[in-house]
Amino acid sequence: MTAMNTQTPFVPGRLEQMSTRIAFFIAGFGIAAWAPLVPYAKARAGLDDATLGLLLLCLGAGSILAMPISGVLATRYGCRRVFSAGTLLICLALPLLATVSSVPFLIATLFLFGAGLGAVDSTVNLQAVIVERASGRTMMSGFHGLFSVGGIAGAAGVSALLALGLTPLWAIMVVIVLILAALIKAAPHLLPYGSESNGPAFAVPHGVVLFIGLLCFVVFLAEGSMLDWSAVFLTADKQIDEAYAGLGYAAFALTMTVGRLLGDTIVSRLGARRVIVLGGLFAAAGLVLATLAASWQVALVGYGLVGIGCSNIVPVLYTAVGKQTLMPMSIAVPAITTLGYAGILAGPAAIGFIAHASSLSTAFLLIATLLVAVAISGRILRV
């Protein structure tokens, strides 16, 4: 009898599907709650853009280190335990992010927060793969749509609480209560097992897999810039009040969610190649508009265009990985996932250094140029 046979006493059904959706909501809600806190943390610790970028690198390092470790732990102890532990790490780190002013403590807290996010993100995707396979039908877009719904609720909700006059700490305490309530609802039907490892946790990609991974890196870099830098940009360049700065990420997350929920229909009508081309151009145009617009209201429209453009590029790229024969799927998929998350988690740190050397506007325009390159790639990539 194999390890999998002893660890899979039942086939996931509707209750496991529901818990998977709640888990994706928790993941999106938890990470987005950080976005409105960035300007407060920056001001409280007296950081410039370059130093903030270095600190955000600690968040990315914690996440990327936790991802492969979480996969191993989930295989041994089950998705339920690892996801719950990651969620509790997030709940522990968020109040500290709302209050800590010491740079060393902020570094440690961001690393802890990143580790929690990495554990949650890695485990919820493993749960989703198992549940989707058991269902016999495509469900991944819907799962990720709930992540986006959580992102909207986290960014807009914290911004609303701050606008009502709550301190960052009290706003985050409300977030923690909601996260724990959702975890209590989801935990009984999160999977008590993981899956067998079919390959290394990380493999160096090459050829078309490396090319696809780099495209994922750019798209996730654009998403990461919305999470970590949109609020800073709106307050510094558009003079929006700090309490409303999270609206930039909320606008991005809203259109991203709509795009993901309609993604299957969009791809079937336009074709995968056009989705990459048009998506890259829409996202690039949105970043240019948000950066060069005179008012913050127009900038919000630009951030919305970025969400529309980015929403379906990565799913199409994952489909392209499935068609390539250069590397086995069990190696290719983890490889491009690692590159992608490097973009969303570690990439924004580079934006801080570029902003320090020139300006945050220059950094955003550079990302727009990279998104145009993604659009061009859609015409040559076999999808």
From TrEMBL:
Domain of life where this protein originates: Bacteria
One GO CC term on file: membrane
Main location group: membrane
The keyword Metal-binding is assigned to this record: no
Keyword annotations: Membrane, Transmembrane, Transmembrane helix
Membrane topology, record value: Multi-pass membrane protein
Residues annotated as signal peptide: none
Compartment annotation: Membrane
Domain Major facilitator superfamily (MFS) profile: 16-383
UniProt KW Membrane keyword: yes
Record's protein name: MFS transporter
Organism: Pseudomonas helleri
